[in-house]
Amino acid sequence: MKKILILLCLCCAAAGLSAETSLPVETPAAQEEVLASKIKEIADRFRAVNTISARFTQEKKLAILNEPVISRGLFYFSKKPSRIRWEYTEPFQNGFLLDAENTYRLEKGVKKKVKGVLARNIASQMLVWLAFDLQSLSNSYHINLLENGVELTPKSDDNKILEKITVWFSKTNSQALEKIQMDEPGGDNTVLIFENTKINEPIAEELFS
Description:
- The chain is globular, with a radius of gyration of 24 Å.
- An 11-stranded antiparallel sheet has the order 6-5-4-3-2-1-11-10-9-8-7.
- It has one domain (30-201): Lipoprotein localisation LolA/LolB/LppX (outer membrane lipoprotein receptor (LolB), chain A, Clam), CATH 2.50.20.
- It is 30% helix and 38% strand.
- The protein is built from 4 helices and 11 strands, in the order ααββββββααβββββ.
């Protein structure tokens, strides 16, 4: 009887081992295909976004300070034509306005034209992040998918301003962003938290003029 039990145990173990070894193993090519499919799904989702408006809270954490510097404001985005208004309302009133040709600084609601490549490059980069243009992002960043967002790391170390950008999607609106965290090489970071986000709703033209 003991011999029969031992044989049964051995058979069960062999069957389990056989079932385990027969499980399909995902190849690197298959993993890349799954990743590409998920990225395309996200890109298609955000490609349908034509306008965005939201409130934001910005938390700037500096290594030399114990507490983050907190600012709040509003932002508006329009895809056609491509424009963005980023306006701080507290503790100070300032910001910037970007259109297809020019960049303006906002001071207490008054806009002043800004000359210089750096200011426009920074504003243009923010436009890409906020609109979540994955096609443009993939040219400059490696994309790693998270459970409810993506992690972006620069492909080049040349003039690298940011170490990493982490983007979280809204849990209530798949076309909206909930939070962006921008980590700098020195350890400082900036966190943007979005609230009351409205997608594809009309935006008053005077906000961009």
